[in-house]
Design goal:
Elements (H helix, E strand, L loop, with lengths): L4 H12 L8 E6 L11 E7 L2 E6 H9 L9 E4 L4 E5 L1
Antiparallel strand pairs: 1-5, 2-3, 3-4, 4-5
Length: 88
């Protein structure tokens, strides 16, 4: 059964509610690799609350090179559908 993006947002919001502060959940892309693996610019961080957490590999590299600069690191979450959402 295919899940829609709306169902994914509901699932993500439900799983994060009370665990992580966030204001928005925005669709970003579709994961082309396997869940839990780093793919292209998506760097796998860990699985928590039944969701897969990723960040941007390029943003993380930039943060490491420019230690004095505050660079916001984007956080992406993926459920079983492989739709990738950025949380803010």
């Amino acid at each position: 059964m295919k899940t829609s993006k709306v169902n994914d947002v509901v699932q993500i919001a439900t799983k994060l509610d009370g665990n992580i502060e966030f204001e928005t959940v925005l669709f970003s892309q579709v994961l082309v690799g396997e869940l839990g693996e780093s793919v292209n610019d998506l760097l796998f961080v860990k699985k928590m609350f039944g969701l897969y957490f990723y960040t941007s590999r390029s943003a993380m590299d930039q943060k490491m090179r420019l230690a004095n600069l505050t660079v916001p690191i984007p956080v992406f979450v993926v459920g079983e559908s492989k739709n990738v959402f950025q949380i803010k």
